[in-house]
From TrEMBL:
Gene3D superfamilies, sorted: 3.30.70.260, P-loop containing nucleotide triphosphate hydrolases (3.40.50.300)
Protein name per Swiss-Prot or TrEMBL: Methionine ABC transporter ATP-binding protein
Start and end residues of each ABC transporter domain: 2-241
UniProt entry tagged with the keyword ATP-binding: yes
Organism of derivation: Metaplanococcus flavidus
Highest rank taxon of the organism: Bacteria
Length: 341
């Protein structure tokens, strides 16, 4: 378990003192994928660097699996850092070394004998899906492959915690998805705790169990990912949730949909968690005389269950449509009639 207690980091720039991390208290469970989201300057990088002792706090403590990272120095700190490894947005690979040699590097530093290093690298190369590319140089790899090397290298010394600093921000959406899938796979296979920082809510939605929202150095909202999607409280959290849910809500989009589907009513269903497992649409179509057309849908799976929206066109008499909407509401699906103004 990772515990942050009253953690504060101030930077003295000579003229002013800037509080980058402001009295943060957090507990992260073993095996959890924990996301920290915030805009640029919120303090995410500073916070994650405090977790592995790259920054010293101005006050407060960081405890990783019973060891106070904030109280140790020198060789002890180097040893503790092997248990908390990190991957980076720009990969931080050694450009003059091959894939194999990059992955081997932390093992060399840890004094692991050659034969053992080689067998470990082989395992890691397999784990991250880079078999056959061992002798390539970073410049010969795609962005996704470079991050796979970064991940393999970070796992070399069997860490307990993996910190991800905007690990997918330099990648295209498809590669991002593949790397996020790999992180989930590693989390499940190795039971590794993952802490990631990002400014992209789709990263949180796809792989995190819980999320903390940071603003001005503080954690302003914290919770299970589905709960945060269902009922974001702070304005900043609402803005992040809107990044992945609100595309179809703009007035222009609604107008466009109404032009395409001019009759009946357009209703938006918001699914959170377990309802998506239930055959709500089947029940609606079997038991109600309305005609149902699927207009648009975006349902995705978070680590805690499905989340998403579905827009339906309901056609029939006023009463038939009203009955169908009542049914949906009774099924505890958040249902909104999309107004046409
Ligand atoms: N070494 C430093 N010296 C002075 N100020 C710093 C230092 N590191 C960070 N800061 C300041 O602390 C604040 C938080 O920065 P931090 O990099 O932690 O935020 P962030 O949320 O990670 O943003 P970004 O995504 O842009 O990196 C910023 O105002 C930044 O300028």
């Amino acid at each position: 378990m990772i515990q942050l207690k009253d953690l504060t980091k101030k930077f003295d720039t000579g003229k002013t003192v800037l509080t980058a991390v402001d009295n943060v208290n957090l507990s992260i469970d073993d095996g959890e994928i924990f996301g920290i989201i915030g805009y640029s300057g919120a303090g995410k990088s500073t916070l994650i660097r405090l977790l592995n002792g790259l920054e010293k706090p101005s006050s407060g403590t960081v405890d990783v699996n019973g060891q106070k990272i904030t109280a140790i120095k020198g060789a002890d700190l180097r040893k503790a850092r092997q248990k908390v490894s990190m991957i980076f947005q720009h990969f931080n690979l050694l450009w003059s070394r091959t894939v194999q040699e990059n992955i081997e590097f932390p093992l060399e530093i840890a004094g692991v004998p050659k034969a053992k290093r080689e067998s470990r690298v082989k395992e890691l190369v397999e784990l991250v899906g880079l078999a056959g590319r061992e002798n390539a140089y970073p410049s010969q790899l795609s962005g996704g492959q470079k991050q796979r090397v970064g991940i393999a290298r970070s796992l070399a010394n069997d860490p307990e915690v993996l910190l991800c600093d905007e690990a997918t921000s330099a990648l295209d959406p498809e590669t991002t998805d593949a790397i996020l899938d790999l992180l989930v796979d590693i989390n499940k296979r190795l039971g590794l705790t993952i802490v990631l920082i990002t400014h992209e809510m789709h990263v949180i939605r796809k792989i995190c169990h819980r999320v903390a929202v940071m603003e001005g150095g503080k954690v302003v909202e914290l919770g299970d990912v589905l709960t945060i999607f269902r009922s974001p409280k702070k304005d900043i959290t609402k803005r992040f949730v809107a990044q992945v849910t609100e595309t179809e809500d703009s007035t222009a989009t609604i107008k466009h949909l109404r032009e395409l589907y001019p009759t009946g009513e357009l209703v938006k269903l918001i699914f959170v968690g377990e309802q998506t497992e239930q055959p709500i649409l089947t029940k609606l179509i079997r038991n109600y005389p309305v005609e149902v057309n699927i207009v648009q849908g975006d349902i995705s799976h978070t680590q805690r269950g499905a989340y998403g929206t579905l827009i339906l066109q309901l056609k029939g008499s006023k009463q038939e449509i009203a009955d169908a909407i009542l049914f949906l509401k009774q099924e505890k699906v958040q249902t909104e009639v999309m107004a046409n103004d």
